[in-house]
Amino acid sequence: MFLRKLSLLVVLLAGLLGAGTASAAAQTYNDVDAEFTRMMIPHHYQAILMSELAPDRAADPELKSLADRIHTEQGLEIRMMQGWQGRNGLPVTDPEAAYQDLLAKPEMLEQMGMATAAEMDRLATLSGAEFDRMFLDLMIPHHDGAVVMLRDVILNGSDQELNQMAQDMMSTQKAQLAIMRDMRESM
């Protein structure tokens, strides 16, 4: 576990420092890689917005801790993906603007396991056990949607750096899914 976290930290630092700069002549990515980052950034952004509600609303300390981890990890992953986009000469996705665009596309939200604007608004009105249940009821399909997206880029993308990032994200998402399902079953 320590080595995996250390590996993720090294990848993150390399991304933030601009290591591995690719020239157009040495392009290693394909359309699947580019689309993955363009869509996963706003997907992660919604998880961050959901997680930001937990400190003041959640009743379960374990859920608060999980939300804090999701907030931190997905914020770092957004920056890693933006760094990858920039190093590859792609437009860098603005998380908030891309998220707002997605909210207007209910079929895309559903396909990606994301909450609707109405569900996000409802979550923001809840507290205590009600908040905890709805947070998990929204975050579990959200993570399931991420796993589908990650599987696609791992199988069909061509960039090795992004593939490693995606594999690390997959491990994190699956571990968090197991925790959330256990939490939800115990409610």
TrEMBL record:
Claim: Cytoplasm is one of the keywords in the record: no
Pfam family, one: DUF305
Protein's UniProt keywords contain Ribonucleoprotein: no
Span of domain DUF305: 33-183
Domain of life according to the entry: Bacteria
Protein keywords: Signal
Annotated InterPro entries: DUF305_CopM-like, Ferritin-like
Signal peptide from the UniProt entry: 1-24
Protein name: DUF305 domain-containing protein
Lineage start: Bacteria, Bacillati, Actinomycetota, Actinomycetes, Pseudonocardiales
